[in-house]
């Protein structure tokens, strides 16, 4: 699931306002050694935090249907995870980096919700839209200054991007065959001992047919059409 989110982000960042610019998009940790090795302008999307969005957790089971719209399996609802990326631009001049960050913002701001048709692999097969937020209020436990300190680099202008993606829950359970017969209702004596003389099996279709027959008989009698 995480690598599929990476694919979506790479396609988004490479297109939009950056389309045709030839600027590379990478996902490596922007350490001091990495910065020294780069050869040209780069937009870096570093995944620095993964945690479950517990507010989206659901209980119960979801049906899985076949091409005939018949329930064949059941599975648990997917779990949602917040993937937090640190977006930075790397060039030789600060003004160029600011232009790149502006282009990234212009590309991501309109994309608050990614439809399933734009999602690859198992992520798209779930049929759920994926929310995306950029440059919002940071809610993770670590500050950006702490992240840069852990990377061994100097603080740099950056954008905080959060993608909340569903992760399918396994396993799936086979569902029983569809119900083709009505339920049976049995009536016993109050003491519940043994089979009572008054025990009866009522099938819904038979009961409904008998009820309609009685109604027809009463209507005929009220109109004089029956004995």
Automatic annotation (TrEMBL):
Domain Pvc16 N-terminal span(s) in chain numbering: 4-181
Classification lineage: Bacteria, Bacillati, Actinomycetota, Actinomycetes, Kitasatosporales
Name the domain of life this protein comes from: Bacteria
Where are the coiled-coil regions?
none
Stretches for region Disordered: 190-227
> What name has this protein been given in UniProt?
Pvc16 N-terminal domain-containing protein
- Which residue stretches does the UniProt record annotate as biased composition, category Basic and acidic residues? 190-201
Pfam hit, one: Pvc16_N
Enumerate composition-biased segments (Basic residues): 217-227
This protein's species is Streptomyces echinatus
Output the InterPro entries linked to this UniProt entry: Pvc16_N
């Amino acid at each position: 699931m995480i690598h599929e989110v990476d694919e979506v982000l790479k396609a988004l960042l490479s297109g939009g306002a950056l389309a045709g610019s030839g600027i590379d998009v990478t996902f490596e940790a922007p350490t001091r050694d990495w910065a020294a090795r780069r050869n040209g302008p780069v937009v870096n999307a570093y995944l620095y935090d993964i945690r479950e969005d517990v507010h989206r957790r659901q209980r119960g089971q979801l049906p899985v249907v076949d091409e005939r719209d018949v329930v064949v399996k059941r599975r648990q609802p997917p779990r949602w995870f917040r993937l937090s990326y640190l977006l930075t631009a790397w060039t030789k001049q600060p003004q160029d980096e600011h232009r790149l960050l502006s282009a990234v913002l212009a590309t991501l701001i309109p994309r608050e919700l990614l439809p399933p048709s734009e999602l690859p692999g198992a992520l798209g097969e779930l049929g759920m839209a994926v929310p995306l937020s950029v440059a919002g209020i940071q809610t993770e436990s670590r500050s950006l200054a702490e992240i840069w300190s852990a990377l061994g680099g100097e603080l740099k202008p950056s954008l905080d991007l959060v993608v909340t993606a569903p992760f399918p829950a396994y396993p799936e359970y086979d569902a029983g065959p569809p119900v083709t017969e009505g339920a049976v209702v049995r009536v016993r004596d109050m003491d519940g001992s043994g089979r009572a003389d008054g025990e009866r099996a009522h099938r819904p279709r038979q009961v409904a047919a008998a009820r309609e027959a009685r109604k027809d008989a009463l209507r005929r009698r009220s109109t004089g059409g029956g004995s």
